[in-house]
Amino acid sequence: MESLTLATFNVHLGMDGWGRPYDVSAQCADLDADVLVMQEVWAPDAGGPSTAEQVADDLGYAVVADHALAHGARYPPAPDADHRWGPPPWRHTRAFRLDRHRPPLRRPKRAPVPGRWSLAFLARIPVHDVRVITLAPLRHDPADRAVICASTDLGGRTATLMGTHMSHLTDFSPLQYRRLAALLPSPDTPAALAGDMNLWGPPVSSFFPAWRRAVTGRTWPAHRPHSQLDHVLITASLRVVEARIADHSGSDHRPVVVRLALA
Q1: pLDDT per position as a tens digit, 202-259
Q2: Half-sphere exposure of 226 toward its Cβ, with a 13 Å CA cutoff?
Q3: I need a labelling partner for 148 at 20 to 30 A (CA). Which of 6, 161, 180, 246 fits?
Q4: 2 pLDDT exceeds 60?
Q5: Is the dihedral of CA 180, 216, 127, 248 positive or negative?
Q6: For residues 120 and 37, what is the distance between their CA atoms, to the nearest angstrom?
Q7: 179: number of Cβ within 10 Å
Q8: Is residue 248 within 8 Å of residue 223, measured between CB atoms?
Q9: DSSP code per residue over 154-215
Q10: Are the C-beta atoms of 64 and 121 separated by less than 8 Å?
């Protein structure tokens, strides 16, 4: 291939802020990505396909890796939900919770559904050398973070593609960023890192000075974004052919899509 399309999408367990499901596969189809990194993938303990498996079945992807980050529960749709994303603050209840999270501010009158919360890497192109790099956990973070890595052939060279979901700044994520920076491929090689970084662009760039952001734009919250938390970073060996922030999805994040080629 002379170019490939890479996308990152926090799917919010396949539901909006009220806990109402939306069509994740339709949103992913609009991205038309060769490689898709998905955060907050949901898989119920009771069985049935995970969010990533459903997207793969519907759109012809292979689930290269689906790495569980945490266990928790989500709640069925609220019966009084309106058309807006997310509940107003005075009626806030979490649509889902992780096991180490505090319980919702107001317990929903709905039975929670237990399951796992994960990071997934999907591809419709050949990839190889798949591996998962686990990052040391942070004391206040309920999730065990990781980076999924895979290689593919691009323009006659091997390109490394990585996907992640980083901790929040309030969980002392700079410690994690320093660890990740030491594990990244050499900036002299073609490589891309995509994911929900839970951090704005300039501080993300400060942790990876040899890498550059492939696209800038607002991704969160999806209904009226004011910040970019979702990023694609690339080395100097790659160039951006096209880049965009996708339109409002059913999730609380907007996807990021980048078409890449060798520099």
Answers
A1: 999 999 999 999 999 999 998 889 999 999 999 999 999 999 999 987 899 999 999 9
A2: 0
A3: 246
A4: yes
A5: positive
A6: 6
A7: 13
A8: yes
A9: ETTEEEEEEEEEPPPGGGTHHHHHHHHHHHSPPTTS-EEEEEE-SS-HHHHHHH-TT-EES-
A10: yes
CATH code: domain of residue 102: 3.60.10.10
Element (H, E) at 55: helix 51-59
Q: What is the pTM of this model?
A: 0.93
Specify the DSSP class assigned to residue 76.
P
Q: Could you tell me which residues come within 8 angstroms of residue 203 by beta carbon, excluding any fewer than 6 positions away?
A: none
Q: Which two tokens stand for residue 25?
A: 């596969």
Identity of residue 191 = A
* Amino acid (1-letter code) at residue 199: L
Closest listed residue to residue 195, CA positions, set 163, 218, 227: 163
Q: Can you say whether the dihedral through the CA atoms of 113, 114, 120, 125 is positive or negative?
A: negative
- pLDDT tens for residues 165-189? 999 998 999 999 999 999 999 999 9
Give 67-105 pLDDT, tens digit per residue. Answer: 999 998 887 776 655 555 555 444 445 677 787 776 666
Give kind and range of the element (H or E) at residue 29.
helix 24-31
Domain count, the chain: 1
Beta bridge partners of 240: 260
**Domain encompassing residue 203:** 3-262
